[in-house]
Amino acid sequence: MTESLFFIFAAMAIVSALMVILNRNPIYSAVSLVITLFSLAGIFLLLEAYFLAVVQIIVYAGAIMVLFLFVIMLLNPGKEAKFLSPKNPRIFIITLLSMAFIGMIITLVSGSVNYIGEAASSTGDLGTTRNIGLTLFTKYLLPFEIASLLLLVALVGAVLMTKRHLR
Amino acid sequence: MTPPLEYYLLFAAALFAIGVAGVLLRRNVIIVFMSIELMLNAVNVTFIAFSRQMNNIDGQIFVFFVMTLAAAEVAVGLAIIVAMFRNKESINIEDMNLLKW
After folding, report:
1. Three-class SS of residue A88?
2. Structural domain boundaries in chain B
3. Which of A39, A132, B34, B89 gives A13 a disulfide partner, CB atoms 3.0 to 4.6 angstroms apart?
4. CATH (one of 1.10.260.40, 1.10.287.3510, 3.10.180.10, 3.90.79.10) for B5-90
5. Is A61 on the interface with B (CB under 8 A)?
6. 3-state secondary structure of B28
């Protein structure tokens, strides 16, 4: 059951990720990215990361994608020129590089299968909000506060950057 | 029957490779940004897969921080894109060569 769900979500994520980079219309790319992020939330659920699956949908598929769509519609870039033609010499190099990367990972993973071993037995409540909160506010309290500072800096920076007249 | 760790790692590698290909292939800055998001998400998948494998929550906390960082990065990056568009009337990545030497 879990295995077939994994394959469904993984196939959805890969196909829509390909749609993101192959589609010439930026709006379609953005919608495909939303589908990818939703499938990833499903995979997070399979891995018992319940809290992060919900955060993935709210923050990524919600907030970040709205920002993307907003900027796409604000700038109205239109369709990109055709880039998937055999005349484009870049294509071969990129395909080669990506294939080499995947081949490298496959070699690495298949070589280390014997060392990975069985998964630790599940307690069923690994990524619940309770457990995440407990760890976040005890062991990782300082990084949490620094992250809030980072968000503040990003907020101020984004407002400053889009101002028309800087003095 | 839960799928073994290798499946998750290979899936994440494929997703990361698609992101890299997108960054190298596309000339539209917004799409390049989306490809960067894809790569960040691929890394998140490996983090959570290992977190489940070890039954240890630290990996998930790290993913939480990666998401925070991605939100900040997108806000600043899109602000830069809007500012660049105002100056150059273009979002082609080839036109953004101010820091090139």
Report:
1. coil
2. 5-90
3. A39
4. 1.10.287.3510
5. no
6. strand
Contact B1 A67 (CB under 8 A): no
- How far from chain centre, in Å, is Cα A11? 15
Nearest-angstrom CA–CA distance, A29 and A34: 9
Q: Are B72 and A151 in contact (CB under 8 A)?
A: yes
pLDDT tens for each residue of A115-147 = 777 777 777 788 889 999 999 999 999 999 999
pLDDT digits (tens, 9 = 90+) for B36-67: 999 999 999 999 999 988 888 999 999 999 99
B81, B16 contact by CB (below 8 A): no
The whole-angstrom separation of Cα A98 and Cα B92 is: 23
Over residues A71-100, the pLDDT tens digits come to 999 887 777 777 766 667 777 888 888 888
Q: Which of residues 31-70 of B touch A (CB under 8 A)?
A: 31, 33-35, 37-38, 41, 44-45, 48-49, 51-58, 60-61, 63-65, 67-70
**Cross-chain residue pair B5–A55, CB shorter than 8 Å:** no
Instruction: Give Cα A136 distance to the centre of its chain.
Output: 22
Structural domains in chain A, CATH included, are 2-79+87-112+125-162 (1.20.120.1200)
Q: What would the pLDDT profile of A26-65 be if each residue is shown by its tens digit?
A: 999 999 999 999 999 999 999 989 999 999 999 988 899 9
Backbone angles phi, psi at B4, to 5 degrees: -70, 170
Enumerate residues 6+ apart whose C-beta is below 8 A from B58: A135, B51
CB contact under 8 A, B38 and A123: no
